[in-house]
Structure formats: C-alpha cells, structure tokens
Design goal:
Order of helices and strands: HHHHHHHHHHHHHHHH
Largest sheet: none
Structural class: mainly alpha
Radius of gyration: 22 Å
Length: about 350
Amino acid sequence: MSKTKFMEIIKPSFYWVILAGFGLWVLVAFLTPSARHSGLNLYEETRFPAMVQGTAYKPFVYRTILPGTVRILTIVTPQAWHRKADEFTGQNQWARKTFQRFEWDFQDTLQYYFAAFLMWLSYVGFAHVTVRLTCQQLQWKAAVGWQAAMGAVALLGLPAMFKYSSFPYDPSQLFLFSLALSLLASERIKSFGLVFLLCCLSKETAVLLIPVHGFFRWKNHPAKLVRQELIILILSFAIIKGGLIWMYRDNPGTFAKIHLFDHNLGWILGQWRWIEMSVALVLAYLVFFRWQDKPRFLRVAFLCIMPVLLGMALIIGFFDEWRIFYEVYAIIFAMGVATVRFLTSSAISTRAEFLRSR
C-alpha cells in the first residue's frame, strides 16, 4: 500500500487524537520553567494569580481574554469545588509533583486547572485552524492523514518560540488571531468580526487585522462597504482598548516597554547565533519562493503584519523573543507548505520527464 493511500484511509478521529496529543506536549513545554523561559509564575510582573485578579503590571494586564475567562470561571464555581481541587492537588502525588514542576501555587489550585485546559484547547484549535487555512488557501483537498501531519508540524514548531517568559495569554492569542485570519480568508465577515472583538481583549496586536481586512477586501468588494467595515473595526478596537486602559489605569507599569537600547541593538550587532540566522533564512526562502504564485490573501496578510511585528520587536520587545511573531505564524506555515508543494511537484515532473526520455 502506498503512503498516499494509507494517508487517505486514516479515520478522521485519528486527526483529533494527533492534534490533542501534540497539543498536550506543547502545553507541557510551555508551562515547564527551563533555562530558556520562566513558565507562568517566575516573572514578577505577570505572575499568573496577578493576571487572573487583574493586578498584574501594564501592559500585560491589558491582555485579558484568557486570565479574565479563568477569573469568571473561578467566581461562578462553587466553593466546594475549590476545596476539592486544593485537597486533590495536595494529596495526589502526580498532581503535587506537576504543580511543583510548573512552580504553581498550592492555593486556589482550580484556577490553574481551568487555565491549563483552556490553553490546551487553544493549541489544538490553533493547529486545526492553521490546517484549514492552509488547505483553503492552497485549494488542496488533503487527506485526513496529511491534515494530521500538518497540524502536528505546526505544533512542533512552537516550543522553539518559548523564550524568556511564558505569558498566560499566548496560547489564546495564537488561536484567536489565526482563527480571525482563517475566517477573513474565507470571507466569513460576521464571524471574523466577532473573533476580532475577542482578539482585542487578548492583545493589542489585533489592530493588525484591520489593514489585512482592508487591503484584502478592497479589490473585490464595493469601496463603500469596505470603508464601513473598516470604520466599525477601528471604533471597536479603540473602544475596547480605551476601556482596558481606563480599567487598569492604577496598575503599576507603563503602556509599553522600550528595549531598543538595553537589549536589541546589542543582539543585532553581534549577540545573535548562527542557528537563529539559519532558521530565519530558511523561513525567508519558504515565504518568498515563487512569491507571485502564492495565494493573494497570504501575501497581503504577510505584508500587512510582518513589517509591523519587526518594528515592534525592534523597539518595544526583545528582537530574539520569537513569540512576538505568533500573529504571522499561520501565514508563514501556509506559505511554507505552498513552497514544499511547488518543489515536490517540480521534482515529480522532472523525474517523469527523465523517465520518458529514457
């Protein structure tokens, strides 16, 4: 039996098992403090209990969708459940070791269980959405096995981006932003609008979806309609962002942190590593190979998002903190798959011509 035939007969349930398993592995890597990143509780300004209670430092406290959801869940959950969760965590050896490994608090443990479950769902949802976006853009009716393989690869690339700190809003932002891109690419504008609102509550980079929407829809839709949609998106972002700024106006911290001189210039001028440069060159090749043959939406989204993220990384982030580029991850992945398909189809054609010439 050929590999392709085997991929086609794999049951659809296997697809979800693969995504769930790899999503769990990524979650454990995300939550475990290491020499590369601090986990949820070791960075003082974004300790998980403070993020949930809304007392963390600005600008991190603005990114409230997952911490806020956990807070709501813990409030509406009966106190008896809280006590049972605390008792289970203290008495069960596996749970106790897990909390110790992740360096989580042993008080109000239920909030950690809620957060871990939501993060796991976010990773699984991200993989699924990325596969859907890729297949839709490449017009590829991929067999379930190939979809499972793509989802696994998309998840396997994430741990390389875990550096410095693990923020509780990262998994949900990765999922929601990728979902918004997928909905926009398939012209499901009402659904896109709803997810855009959630993205605004997740992270301020939701604003990058506005130019993607404008440039993508301007060509094939009435200008008046597109302008109205853009006005709604801009006002929605402004109202939500303004509300978050006012709500957390008394929190410590600042609106943004500048790292151009204390970190980024030194890294650019000589602290980067060859492995990082090599990965960047490979990704650039995957993106720009046969650029004009790539789907228009992917090209528009990349050009609207990536330059802004690079500028933000240079000034207000750590340039080598790869999690900054989550918003463009699904786009680069889809472009990479397109490049691989270009190369494999070319190799197959060359081999066929060679065999015919013999």
